[in-house]
Amino acid sequence: AGDDLADWELMCRRLAEMPPAWTPGGKCAYHGLTFAWLIGETARRAARQDFRQSIREELLLPLQLQDEVFFGSSEDSERRFVPIDSSAMPNGECWCRDFIHSPAIRRGFIPSANGLASARALARIYASLLCEVDGVRTLTAETVQQATQLCRAADDPFPEGVTWAKFGLGYVLGGPPDNLGQVFGHGGAAGALGLVDKKSGLALGLTRNKTSAQHPYYPLRERLSAALQLPLMHW
What we know:
The protein is α+β, with helices and mostly antiparallel strands. The chain has helices spanning 2-5, 8-17, 35-47, 51-60, 75-80, 92-100, 103-107, 119-130, 141-147, 219-227, and strands at residues 69-71, 115-117, 172-174, 183-187, 193-197, 203-206. The strands form 2 sheets. It has a 4-stranded antiparallel sheet, covered by helices on one side. Strands 1-2 form a two-stranded antiparallel ribbon. Strand 5 (193-197) and strand 6 (203-206) form a beta hairpin. The relative contact order is 0.13.
């Protein structure tokens, strides 16, 4: 239920009470929603402050993006929000009504799923991971290198296909086999995309509001990669 998902303490408590599906570290899998609380609560306790405030202070304010990135809607962001059209997806209308456009979800704080941002903001954030953006670099080169190493146990083979498989520390990894992680980033609802290429230094932000019947596969991403001569990234 949307009300439950928007209750931070409730969701953290439920996750803490759940037995792991496998030995932690033994298998890589995509945490499309639970990433919010697994990482966010850990960060909240480490910083001893609200995770939303940490995002604002450590990322949005230094990059001057406090008016372009929102986690949980405000009066201003509601005026600028473009609704997602998911009618092309199987059960897409239910997904939008019960989750994406749910008032509780829109107002809540689920940083893995309810962020609102401009394409410019996505590109600016990813650029700041590799170099200074108006004097601000958000991660050191050493941290980026660590975060873009493949996180997969030796006895955890890739599943059939290429979707949801090649992850670093939170980022999806792309690039040639001998340089996996050259490109890293993540996709979002309706085919949105944020990434940066270590080789060229190019950062890209893409926002969309209409889903595809082939979700999460969006040919536009591949066309953009080809036009910009970037390695393909599969989600």
